[in-house]
Amino acid sequence: MEENGGGNLFELFCGMIEAFDPCMDDYLYVFDVQNDQYYISKKAMKRFALPSFQFTHVLDTHRKFVYEEDVEMLEADLEKVMSGEKLEHNLTYRWMSVDGEPIWINCRGRIIIGADGKPQFLVGCINEVGTKPIADNVSGLLESFAIKDAWNQQHNTMTNGFVLRIGIDNFKTINEKLGVEYGDFIIHEVANCILDCIHEGQKVFRVVADEFLIIDTAGGTAKDAKALYRKVRSGIDHLIRRDNYKAFFTISGGVISGEMLGQVDYNELLKYTQFALSEAKARGKNQVYYFQVEDYEKFLRRRKILVELRKAVSNDFEGFDVFFQPIITRGGKDLYAAESLLRFWTSEKETVSPAEFIPILEESGLIIPVGKWVLHRALEMCVKCREKRPDFKVSVNLSYIQILKSNFFKDVTEALEQYKLRPDSLIIELTESGYVENSPVVRKLWEQLKDRGVLIAIDDFGTGYSSLGMLSQSPADMMPDIIKLDRGFTVKALNNNYEYQLMNQIIQLIHSVDLKVCVEGVETMEELTEIERLSADCIQGYYYGKPCEKQAFYKDFVEK
Questions:
Q1: 108 and 162 share a domain?
Q2: Average pLDDT score over residue span 83-99
Q3: CA dist., res. 129 & res. 93, Å (int)
Q4: Tell me: the pLDDT tens digits for 461-487?
Q5: How far apart (Å, rounded) are the C-alpha atoms in residues 482 and 558?
Q6: 221 compared with 92, residue with greater pLDDT
Q7: CATH for 367
Q8: pLDDT: is 165 or 260 the higher one?
Q9: Same domain membership, residue 197 and residue 151
Q10: What gap in Å lies between CA 452 and CA 457, rounded to an integer?
Q11: What are residue 119's DSSP bridge partners?
């Protein structure tokens, strides 16, 4: 155990559990969230298939004695508790006995916040509830295992009807600002509101802290589900007014309906309704979403890729590679630079498109460590290439997430020093949308890079004609060094004389303020001939070379 304040407090909780254990039928426990360690009444080992009364790797260890069908539900709830999304744990599910039989237990606990403002301890008790459905003390509704009983009894015969999962939006904020007791009051009142709205043939259950499940076996349609959602939402609005707007909140809903209900088992029911509710919240909250198989498959695909990406990052970026595409000076005279392009293969050697995995990297925050890794691989390549071509440069794409959530300038500075490279050997590419954003954090990084001597390129320029106004209105210190004209713009210019003349004028404008122009997406000799007439400084595209791994790039473009 740790010798810090958190460790001492954990030991204190353990001592209290030992002291109260002989005089209680329930099983007291403490979960040290920050240090990932768990302690429970020793007598629990006589009843349940626990590896020990004290263990680490808490979530992984629970999988060994929690009933298999209940693991996912438990982990989903604990993740919310551990992240601080909710401050209480109250779940009825099953633990395996020492004889290998599932036993229904109710596990309750409260979060204790540490000095850093993050969840530090979950302290509570576990009691056996047998096989008889019980209602939780807050909402008065039957809980999760009662849902399973109800579903198993009737879903096989369902050819219509619906299931509506309702969640309170931003419930965590209510608990944080107004206290847990008031949060319990809201849960209770929302439950009553839902009960007032349902009719015969509909049952309502509490799933987790702020979520409810309504099962309709009376033949209701998707339209009826939406009408019920609106009715509940109207009741919530009345509750808020009645409480003098002490708390203002909304609800979201996810719906499964129709013939598929008869084919959905209990675990699938929870998964699908959770997905549907999450989609409603992701799309702006205060709305209802209808489950679509295609959307769910996309979700599973994204989740699978995210798992693979996390695994790759933790395994020293195994599965990632950096490819390089040449940027050639006008007339094919010389190699000016290379753009670094990230590639990814899953552990099953499946190629994943950058258009698919990069947004996932950005949403998850993994773009920060991966982006730093790409920077180092690019500069390593630059060092090697400059041995033969002293003026060679390498470009690296920069995500807006990296600007917002990392010290990218520090990363660049340290990397340049590590590889002993001149700052102007590195080009940082920022998309036009990021340039237009021009927020204080973008401006600060921009100024730092410019002062350091790092070159800046605007990528995807020309995706909107606002580009011209943006460029003309930018102050001198926010001017890039290179403008990269987007492939889409190039194609338009090659197929339409008006667009071609417009592109010519844009290039002249860019040159008039002493900036370089790189035309992207040139793929054929005919395209090259037309683009060369426009006096662009550099050309990038498949005509000169596709992105390739570093050895091939060096052989084909540096050594020759």
A1: no
A2: 86
A3: 10
A4: 765 444 555 565 566 667 889 999 988
A5: 22
A6: 221
A7: 3.20.20.450
A8: 165
A9: yes
A10: 15
A11: 113
Give strand ranges (E) for 300-350.
Answer: 320-329, 335-345
Structure tokens that stand for 422 in this block = 């001149």
Q: Classify residue 558 by its DSSP letter.
A: I
Nearest to 67 by CA among 121, 145, 13, 179: 145
pLDDT score recorded for residue 270: 87
Angle at alpha carbon of residue 265, lines to 126 and 283, rounded to 5°? 85
Give Dmax (Cα) for the chain: 91
Report the C-alpha gap between 333 and 471 in whole angstroms.
29
Give the mean model confidence (pLDDT) for residues 408-412.
96
The three-state secondary structure class of 20 is helix
pLDDT, tens only, 498-543 = 988 988 988 998 898 889 999 999 999 999 998 888 889 999 999 9
Q: How far apart are CA 70 and CA 105, in angstroms?
A: 11
d(CA 334, CA 178): 66
Amino acid at 527: E
Sequence-separated (6 or more) residues with CB below 8 Å from residue 440? none
Q: Are 191 and 204 in contact (CB under 8 A)?
A: yes
The amino acid present at 485, given as its one-letter code, is L
SS3 451: helix
Residue 526 belongs to domain spanning: 312-558
Q: What angle do CA 204, 208, 212 make, to 5 degrees?
A: 25
Residues 241, 196 share a domain:
yes
Same domain, 108 and 161: no
Closest CA relative to residue 145, chosen from 185, 102, 109, 197:
102
Instruction: Report the alpha-carbon distance of residue 102 to residue 49 in Å, rounded.
Output: 10
Residues 208, 351 within the same domain = no
Predicted confidence at residue 499, as pLDDT, reads 86
User: In the chain, how many domains are there?
Assistant: 3
Cα-atom radius of gyration of the chain, to the nearest Å? 30
Partners of 415 in the beta sheet? none
Q: What are the φ/ψ torsions at residue 285 (nearest 5 degrees)?
A: 65, 175
What's this model's pTM, rounded to 2 decimal places?
A: 0.71
CA end-to-end span of the chain: 61
Check: CB of residue 158 under 8 Å from CB of residue 196: no
Report CA-CA distances (Å) from 107 to 91, 101, 178, 358: 5, 18, 24, 39
User: Can you say whether the dihedral through the CA atoms of 229, 235, 239, 242 is positive or negative?
Assistant: positive
Residue 62 burial (CB count, 10 A): 18
